[in-house]
């Protein structure tokens, strides 16, 4: 019996003998044209010859045979074409396809490339605009038979979710048999597997794994029946080579900057031939797939799809400049998908200049064992910053940086925070990371749980530490080298401390991406309880000059950090049109938009004629975008083609002027400017104190006093405007506590009114203003009862109290006096009665008053509730409550 596939040489046709005729199951279906070694450059032209043979009549064969497959080959190069593809086109392949594959294609009702031209309409419900663009444009690219496509999406925009949606549609509608999802670290592979496991398509009630088999490869074999294979590029190489791979070799990224040696040569593997995968999706494709690893990709006859937030020139080149989606970090900030960042510089003498160790006994330490010894230094040892923490360890340098960070993180960088925000420190080596951890714990005066290492070489399970860092209060600080530098989500992360330099622009951008994730207030407060808003920014703490040693593609938006929002808006309204001013204003508006609530956004849009704050900022940034300016001018410039002529430059300048004027037009509205400034004040703690220059400048104290006076004046205006509008103010002004107790609801109404425009204040701000103004303050405020402190502030302003003290402290003092007077007149309270009275005191401290209904709630309910209180105090129980409501508050 003949084999499935047979090739016959020199078969005669009406236009001459073809080199080889391919038979599948006895039926002729394909041709091979073979050429000499040095004719590779002419194979494209040979394709015409092959087509001529295919259209000829074959000797001894029926006239209606269908020659579908065509190969042109030399001893080193093979090209292939399927004539059943619409707009068929030859492509280079690693080797000839197996006969079984040709048989499968012959039995298929259509080709995969034809099915790629007819995807059904995509339901965009629940998808971001950038995700929709990526999915739709990628399918368009497939339909045009483009072999490679690049999706560029900012960190946090949902690249993986987008890719899985594409995978689902390829499997369902294009009938793809197998798709490879390629990563470069085991960690990213595990994350991708989890994303596939949770994915639920919009047109099916089942989860992805219930529809298609997903397998993360962990051995040298690929399980049969797998529809989606998740693998590192290292493991896929080992599979093709038929070798086992230690999982430790998948833990770090095969970053091209660290790879040495020759390219990883790939040979034909009959178990996994080139046609094994139809599509390959390469996550984080900006690294690892070039040079030494590229042959792994070149081996497969598959469409290649790249995913990255930070493409570079090599990335664009590898994917044939076919960028199907481009969504930058700047656009993501505008859309609220990312948060913007600030940079805080800590520069020390040793970090910048190095130092010299004089000729004497010096302490040395083994890198791995950490064993110490003393040796005589025969000559002075000079070291620069390049040797620091590698060849020379200077504990004082690390300590100086950590101490400065400790002192500034909750005062300058994140003022008002009670705990250090989630912080990631990038170290140079594992040894350097250990030194940092020990000093962080010591300088902050905290235990082991406060600061931990997350590196591949850490003794403690890095996965569990990472999970805790992501979801729990501890650790507050994580120190890493590379493990979570890229591709790992810790959305609560707000501070990135660089104690190592980074030379790769893309790698640096990826590291910054760790801080750019957005997070709502409730989720942020779960791990950082003192956060008062959603995450609206991150801070880069540069201790080694990393921000100066390279330039990133991300535009620095706030170029005038010492200029207030009010001054920026006025500058633009008064004629400023320069890049720095307009761009800084755009950046400041984006920050404000990130913390405004829906009501504030709606009001701002009304005042701006329908444009949202984000839209205004977007237009300002677009006014300085070269592509947008050229489009406005009606000009097209191709990369590297030529410089603009003088006439074209004039058109570009005129176009930019038009764009700028259109962008800043809303700023001419005094009403809008005032509203935005008042909205800024309402969120002052988040957006006003984040400016390094403003916080540490020598003029800060004077500015602070002026600001305090302004706050107090605004507060007085608030009281005058609302004394007859708010119940709590009516009671305090009239001192009618006996007739009507102050309730927590009333106090919240005061807080809400105080925060709104045109006041834009909080109790914290007003209290702090009186502190700065020199008001007599009895005791420091505690975390308990802060909401009620507004009562104390109001009474102090009205002169009803001579000393400003927390409401809780006043209640406690008045409670002592009340108990003393009652004991003196009616006999001593019993110990159980005193326990109840103290609980009522604490309740009034946080709620303003107590009612009989409250006594059935916690903590009173656990002690017997209203019934037990009645037993203890008898028929006079309500008099006791009324008396305490008045005596402890009035």
UniProtKB/TrEMBL annotation:
EC number(s) from the headed UniProt entry: 3.1.21.3
Per the UniProt record, one Pfam family is EcoEI_R_C
Keywords, in A-Z order: ATP-binding, Helicase, Hydrolase, Nucleotide-binding
Q: GO MF annotations for this entry? A: ATP binding; DNA binding; helicase activity; type I site-specific deoxyribonuclease activity
| Highest taxon listed in the record's lineage | Bacteria
| UniProt domain Helicase ATP-binding: residue ranges | 140-329
PROSITE patterns per UniProt: HELICASE_ATP_BIND_1
Q: Which InterPro entries match?
A: EcoEI_R_C_dom, Helicase/UvrB_N, Helicase_ATP-bd, Helicase_Restrict-Modif_Enz, P-loop_NTPase
Which of the seven top EC classes does this enzyme belong to? Answer: hydrolase
Asked if the record carries the keyword Zinc, the reply is no
Q: Which Gene3D superfamilies match?
A: P-loop containing nucleotide triphosphate hydrolases (3.40.50.300)
Q: Which GO terms describe its cellular component?
A: cytosol
Its GO biological process annotations read:
DNA modification
The name under which this protein is listed is: Type I site-specific restriction-modification system, R (Restriction) subunit and related helicases
State the organism's lineage. Answer: Bacteria, Bacillati, Actinomycetota, Coriobacteriia, Eggerthellales
């Amino acid at each position: 019996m003949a084999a499935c596939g047979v090739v016959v040489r020199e078969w005669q046709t009406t236009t001459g003998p073809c080199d080889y005729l391919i038979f599948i199951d006895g039926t002729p279906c394909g041709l091979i044209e073979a050429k000499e070694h040095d004719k590779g450059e002419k194979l494209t032209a040979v394709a015409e010859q092959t087509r001529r043979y295919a259209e000829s009549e074959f000797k001894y064969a029926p006239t209606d045979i269908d020659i579908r497959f065509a190969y042109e080959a030399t001893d080193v190069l093979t090209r292939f074409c399927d004539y059943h593809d619409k707009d068929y086109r030859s492509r280079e392949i690693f080797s000839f396809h197996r006969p079984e594959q040709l048989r499968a294609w012959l039995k298929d009702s259509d080709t995969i490339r034809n099915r790629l031209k007819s995807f059904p309409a995509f339901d965009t419900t629940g998808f971001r605009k950038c995700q929709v663009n990526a999915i739709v444009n990628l399918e368009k690219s497939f339909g045009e038979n483009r072999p490679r496509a690049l999706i560029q999406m900012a960190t946090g925009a949902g690249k993986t979710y987008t890719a899985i949606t594409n995978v689902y549609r390829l499997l369902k509608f294009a009938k793809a048999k197998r798709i490879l999802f390629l990563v470069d670290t085991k960690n990213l592979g595990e994350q991708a597997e989890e994303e596939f496991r949770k994915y639920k398509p919009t047109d099916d009630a089942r989860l992805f794994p219930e529809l298609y088999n997903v397998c993360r490869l962990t051995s040298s074999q690929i399980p049969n029946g797998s529809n989606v294979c998740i693998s590192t590029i290292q493991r896929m190489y080992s599979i093709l080579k038929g070798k086992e791979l230690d999982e430790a070799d998948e833990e770090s990224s095969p970053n091209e900057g660290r790879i040495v040696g020759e390219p990883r040569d790939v040979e034909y593997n009959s178990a996994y031939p080139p046609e094994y995968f139809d599509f390959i999706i390469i996550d984080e494709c900006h690294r690892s797939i070039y040079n030494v690893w590229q042959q792994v990709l070149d081996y497969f006859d598959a469409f290649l799809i790249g995913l990255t937030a930070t493409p570079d020139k090599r990335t664009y080149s590898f994917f044939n400049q076919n960028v199907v989606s481009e969504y930058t970090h700047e656009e993501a900030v505008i859309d609220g998908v990312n948060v913007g960042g600030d940079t805080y510089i800590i520069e020390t003498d040793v970090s910048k200049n190095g130092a010299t160790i004089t000729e004497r006994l010096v302490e040395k330490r083994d890198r791995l064992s950490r064993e110490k010894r003393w040796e005589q230094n025969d000559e002075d040892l000079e070291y620069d910053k390049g040797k620091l923490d590698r060849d020379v360890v200077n504990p004082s340098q690390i300590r100086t940086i950590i101490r400065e960070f400790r002192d500034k993180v909750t005062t300058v960088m994140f003022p008002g925070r009670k705990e250090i925000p989630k912080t990631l420190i990038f170290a140079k080596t594992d040894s350097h990371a250990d030194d940092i951890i020990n000093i962080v714990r010591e300088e902050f005066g905290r235990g082991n749980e406060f600061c931990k290492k997350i590196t591949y070489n850490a003794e403690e399970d890095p996965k569990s530490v990472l999970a805790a860092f992501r979801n729990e209060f501890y650790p507050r600080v994580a120190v890493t080298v590379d493990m979570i530098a890229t591709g790992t989500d810790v959305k609560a992360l707000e501070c990135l401390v660089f104690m190592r330099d980074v030379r790769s622009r893309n790698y640096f951008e990826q590291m910054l991406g760790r801080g750019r994730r957005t997070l709502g207030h409730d989720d942020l407060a779960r791990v950082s309880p003192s956060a008062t808003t959603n995450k609206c920014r991150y801070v880069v703490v540069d201790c080694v000059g990393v921000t100066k040693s390279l330039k990133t593609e991300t535009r620095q938006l706030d170029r005038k950090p010492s200029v207030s929002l009010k001054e920026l808006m006025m500058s633009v309204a008064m004629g400023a049109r320069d890049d720095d001013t307009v761009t800084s204003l755009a950046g400041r508006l984006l920050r404000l938009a990130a913390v405004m609530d829906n009501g504030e956004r709606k009001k701002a849009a009304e005042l701006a004629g329908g444009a949202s704050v984000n839209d205004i900022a977007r237009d300002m940034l677009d006014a300085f975008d070269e592509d947008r300016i050229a489009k406005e001018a009606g000009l097209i410039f191709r990369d590297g083609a030529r410089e603009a002529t003088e006439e074209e430059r004039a058109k570009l300048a005129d176009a930019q002027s038009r764009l700028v004027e259109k962008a800043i037009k809303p700023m001419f509205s005094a009403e809008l400017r005032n509203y935005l400034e008042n909205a800024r004040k309402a969120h002052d703690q988040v957006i006003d104190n984040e400016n390094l220059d403003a916080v540490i400048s020598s003029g800060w104290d004077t500015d602070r006093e002026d600001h305090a006076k302004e706050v107090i004046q605004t507060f007085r205006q608030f009281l005058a405007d609302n004394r007859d509008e708010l119940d709590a103010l009516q009671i305090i002004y009239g001192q009618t506590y006996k007739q009507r107790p102050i309730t927590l609801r009333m106090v919240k109404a005061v807080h809400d009114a105080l925060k709104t425009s045109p006041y834009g204040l909080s109790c914290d701000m007003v209290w702090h203003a009186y502190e700065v103004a020199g008001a007599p303050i009895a005791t420091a405020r505690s975390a308990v009862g802060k909401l009620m402190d507004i009562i104390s502030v109001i009474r102090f302003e009205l002169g009803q109290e001579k000393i400003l003290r927390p409401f809780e402290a006043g209640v406690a003092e008045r409670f002592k006096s009340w108990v003393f007077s009652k004991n003196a007149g009616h006999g001593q309270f019993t110990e159980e009665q005193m326990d109840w009275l103290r609980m009522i005191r604490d309740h009034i401290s946080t709620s303003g008053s107590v009612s009989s209904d409250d006594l059935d709630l916690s903590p009173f309910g656990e002690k017997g509730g209203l019934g037990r209180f009645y037993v203890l105090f008898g028929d006079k129980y309500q008099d006791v409550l009324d008396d305490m409501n008045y005596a402890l508050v009035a």
